[in-house]
Amino acid sequence: MMYDICQSPVSLDDPALLEEWNALIRAFMAHGTATPTHLGAVLSGAPNFAMGHAAKGLFSLMMGRRELNAVAREAGQAAVAALAASGGSTRERLWVRALGEWLDGRPSGAIAAMERILVDHPTDTLSAKVSHAIRFILGDGVGMRTSIENVLDAHKGHDLEGYVLGCHAFTLEETGEYDAAEGAGLKGLGLAGDDAWGLHAVAHVYDMTARPDHGIALIENNCSAWDHCNNFRYHVWWHKALLHLDRGETDIVLAIYDDQVRSEKTDDYRDMANATSLLMRLELEGVHVGARWDELADLAQNRTDDGCLVFADLHYMLALGAAGRSTAQASMTNRFARDAVRSGEMPARVANPGQAALAGLNAFSEGRYEQAFQSLAAARPGMQTIGGSHAQRDVFERMTIDAGLRAGLVDATETLIEDRIARRAGAMDRFSSTRLASIHNARRIPAQ
């Protein structure tokens, strides 16, 4: 039994394969493009390494694509067969269990398996990151924070301490501790200069606290933290675009969209979320985005039956609604109705808040703004559970508020704006200030 960079047991007996495994861990922590390459090398050299097969399955499920479910199932079968053939440590068995739980529709069970590992191996950064990632998909911000804080002390002086600090920074930001998040993220970046997740956590802080100048400088001055990434680098560009939008620089935002955010026309749900939410934000600011919706809608209409993540589905619907793809909108609406009555952790999210949110997006695209406001406002208390971050879900907040304004629901809309400001530690960004000004004008005009 050898030990990896996480100071945890791993059933590899070849130092060269251990080196590949350690490289995989570093690449995964840094959202690096080499992650699948290193995993492939490990499995090629150690076909009975159960944890490697489990990693392949779990990483596939994280992609949120229906066609990758079959890949994950094959990996699960290979992992079980590898355990039967060669055995494995408790850590490795729990990774296989985690994959099985998620395949059976219980991602919370996958989290529980990772957390069980961390009881015995609190230095296991890889398992901590996987727990973090699945909780992110489930919108469990508080759980993310508790989990990472449980292993912070064990990571002092650890080779991967910087990445753990980056995870901690993100959880602090998502739970409203903005000053602490900024400090943790910058400290982590000093220890792990390629930690895109930690850098992006600090960018979140600057977005939530309406400090776009700080955020733009952070991203521009730390290119080495994110320019090596897989498609996560597009998400960093997306953050930069949001910060420029807060400065009213819509021409720069459109250039970033064309040159970076959609430099590769993928249908990865994370790339689609970046693109659709950015175009919607621009349209809410009165910017004409031209035919850009059509490219996204062409991809989204092939995903109406995907049903992996409500977060992904709602972003697909943004494109379908904006491009007027009524047939595809109806197809997704019908599929939501079917999924909502099924049992399970993800169907529960379709039922609430998914159906109300989807109805709100449909109504918004059709100009039925009062109904859009009512439906989106009804979904709002549960939107955390669809996953993603506050910054990502803010597009739905903005649509709710603008629907209310367009419907003339001034008092109810003002309440939402004030709540949005409170969640941002009282910071007033351009969106809130312009909408409050609109409300002020709406109230002043009748009095004249």
Overview of the molecule:
The protein has a two-stranded antiparallel sheet. The chain is mostly helical. A hairpin with a 5-residue loop joins strand 1 and strand 2 (9-10). The protein is globular and about 80 Å long. It contains 23 helices and 2 strands. Helix 9 runs antiparallel to helix 10 (178-191). It is 72% helix and 1% strand.
Mean pLDDT: 97
The string of secondary-structure elements, in order, is EEHHHHHHHHHHHHHHHHHHHHHHH
Quick one: biggest sheet?
2 strands, antiparallel
- Morphology call: globular
Structural classification = mainly alpha
The percentage helix is over 70%
Sequence of strands across the biggest β-sheet? 1-2
By DSSP, the count of extended strands is 2
Gap between N and C termini, in Å? 81 Å
Architecture blueprint of SSEs:
Layout: E1 2-3, E2 9-10, H1 15-29, H2 35-45, H3 50-62, H4 68-86, H5 90-103, H6 107-120, H7 125-138, H8 141-150, H9 161-174, H10 178-191, H11 196-208, H12 212-221, H13 232-246, H14 250-261, H15 269-284, H16 292-300, H17 310-322, H18 326-340, H19 345-365, H20 369-379, H21 390-406, H22 410-423, H23 430-447
Antiparallel strand pairs: 1-2
